[in-house]
Write a structure and sequence with these properties.
Pfam family, one: ABC_tran
Largest sheet: 6 strands, mixed
Radius of gyration: 19 Å
CATH superfamily: P-loop containing nucleotide triphosphate hydrolases
Distance between the termini: 54 Å
Family: Belongs to the ABC transporter superfamily.
Organism: Sinosporangium siamense
Strand content: 15-25%
Bound molecules: adenosine-5'-triphosphate
Helix content: 40-55%
CATH class: Alpha Beta
Keywords: ATP-binding, Nucleotide-binding, Transport
Structural class: alpha/beta
Protein name: Dipeptide/oligopeptide/nickel ABC transporter ATP-binding protein
């Protein structure tokens, strides 16, 4: 069996005495795609934040690429090495980019930090990454405000990939996008995995999305894992009543997305 690239063992997190994550263990193989699913508040994001180091585990162990990361990095060098192992893309493509920076500059910044490429090498790599996520030269050189939500999320993905991570965590990364744009970004992600061999950890409440992208699933409820297994097995023959319940909230064939409220309607 291939050794895991990410191993999470007995992870716990309490916030002021309230348990957010309790005894969570799972592993991710190189190039695999694992989804962590569960309804809002089940502890998914807290698990992701502990893995990238934004939150400190109350107990448990996290090992990525053979290095322990249960404790904060001890040096700038260690922090940078961790960035080269795991990157994360968040839900909101509107707030995750610097509004004053073009995508090309944003990607270049990460290349400067994580690679030894010279200016010409970085320019080539920016073009390669743009190509990988399906953005053209014009889109790479405007400000984020001139891009659509889906295009911005592609920029966020290109930027994360610039660090050449072995693991990419996608925390509800397509949840804010319209269904057709969602499908485009999911295709981009599938292509990226095929071409680069990066492993994905998907955090999602959306089982329809998960079915498209993940090989395996863990289902969380109230901070704990209640079910796990290959995607098709868990979704088609859920054993735990909670997974069955989650499944019934997924639209079936013929379902149409509800029309989104316009800004005027929500103001
Ligand atoms: N910084 C924090 N301080 C206090 N409580 C927190 C903090 N972060 C998360 N929690 C609590 O931990 C629990 C798990 O939250 P978490 O965000 O991990 O769930 P989730 O499954 O990712 O939900 P969502 O999909 O809504 O983000 C919740 O009860 C939440 O209120």
């Amino acid at each position: 069996m291939t050794e895991a690239i990410l191993e999470v063992e007995g992870l716990h997190k309490t916030f002021k005495g309230a348990v957010a994550v309790a005894d969570v263990s799972f592993s991710l193989r190189p190039g695999a795609a694992l989804a962590v699913v569960g309804e809002s508040g089940s502890g998914k994001t807290t698990v992701a934040r502990m893995i990238v180091g934004l939150e400190r585990p109350t107990a448990g162990r996290i090992t990525a690429c053979g290095h322990d990361r249960s404790h904060p990095p001890r040096s700038v060098r260690e922090r940078r090495r961790r960035g080269g192992e795991i990157q994360i893309v968040f839900q909101d493509p509107y707030s995750s980019l610097d509004p004053r920076q073009s995508p090309a500059t944003a990607v270049d910044e990460i290349l400067r930090l994580h690679t030894r490429l010279d200016a010409a090498g970085r320019r080539r790599r920016v073009a390669e990454l743009a190509d990988l996520v399906g953005l053209d030269e014009r889109q790479m050189n405007v400000l984020p405000s001139e891009l659509s939500g889906g295009q911005r999320q592609r920029v966020a993905i290109a930027r994360a990939l610039a660090a050449e991570p072995q693991i990419l965590i996608l925390d509800e990364s397509v949840a804010a996008l319209d269904v057709s744009i969602q499908a485009q970004v999911l295709n981009v992600l599938a292509g990226v995995r095929e071409r680069t061999g990066v492993a994905y950890l998907f955090i999602s409440h959306d089982l329809a999305v998960v079915r498209q992208v993940a090989d395996e699933i863990v289902v969380m409820r109230g901070g704990s894992i209640v079910e796990r297994g290959p995607t098709a097995q868990v979704l088609d023959n859920p054993r735990h009543p909670y997974t069955r319940l989650l499944r019934t909230s997924v639209p079936g064939p013929g379902w149409r997305p509800a029309r989104r409220a316009t800004r005027k309607e929500t103001q």
